[in-house]
Amino acid sequence: MTPVQARTALGFSCVGHSISHIFEPIFYVVALVLPAQFGISYEASLALILGGKLLFGIAAPFTGWLGDRWSATGMMALYFLGIGGGAIWAGLATSPLEMAIALGVLGLFGSIYHPVGIAWLVRTAVNRGKALGINGAFGGFGPALGGVLAGVLIDAFGWRSAFLIPGAVTVLIGFGFIWLVLTGVIIETRTEARTDPTPDRRDTARVYIIIAMTMLVGGLIYQATQASMPKVFDERLGGLLGEGASGVGLGVMIVYGVAGLFQIVTGHLADRFPLKTVYVSMYVLQVPVLAMAATAVGLPLLLVMLMMVSFNIGALPAENSLLARYTPPSWRSTAYGLKFVLAFGISGLAVPLVAWIRAATGDFTVLFLLLSSLAALVLIALVRLPRERSDPLPAATAAAE
Q: Can you tell me where the transmembrane regions are (predicted)?
């Protein structure tokens, strides 16, 4: 793979990561106006995305397996066209049922990115932490852009435009990706840019069990935070960033934009310090800020939200590096797919949990105290992660640097 091909692949991997996270926050802002449009409650509006969220995670092992056995570039082409088409359908929906089906299509095609796109990136990177940190930053930019974009488009053109315009742009990106594949600028590669020391089988089993528990809880925290944030900001920011959907969207943009950049920092840390140390530290930091979010208002609320999301997704470069280190290259897409069953599929149950707690208590205090307790429980498991045996060895030039 030439440097130009590697940079192009990294670029589309990063853009794809942003797109994979842009439509869910768009929906959560749109959900603020759907009750008036469809004649349903806010809690019922949130429930419309549940099927799509479950497919986003549950379908990931299958799409990852196809990426391993068929074609990573072919799956990425399907990803761009499918997720863009699903968004356009959501923008044209005329009933809650049609919206739920469209969001299901969005989730199904969205399930392609994480198992296929991240494995594609890992395959070409010597400094995995750095590459995953940059890629993770773009993942953070998705919710950042999605929230403010939805707010601006809703206020300017109505809620349908919040799906239609980003969906059309995504389809165009997909056609551009296909053209670059056909012209040889983007190629399929199975060559590893670096090799890792062979892990002990007992260590591998322990890592898989512990990371599975952590990914489930980390996913629950991420999903519950993302689902509740627009409503929390709407109720507790007190107009700090402006009124209406635009002010809420700006708050979401600030939180996820800064959190995305923080992943670049934790990616560098993952290359320079033991992965276990970086990973555990992110959960130690989450416990107190999640508890503070239970009662914070105004500017303190914005700062607490910024920290809790930063620490939550800041763990991902170390987490994905650990998974890559303990998984054979030929099974990485499948392994990442199984990861995202937990991180985005099963943990998608956080959305009805948010709706239930909100309906039962009238606010989100109990929710954030529960999430803080779960993060504390995860620490008990994380201290059992094995120590790293030795540094990885470069197998080729650092294509993703």
A: 21-40, 46-67, 74-93, 99-122, 134-157, 163-187, 207-225, 245-265, 336-358, 364-383
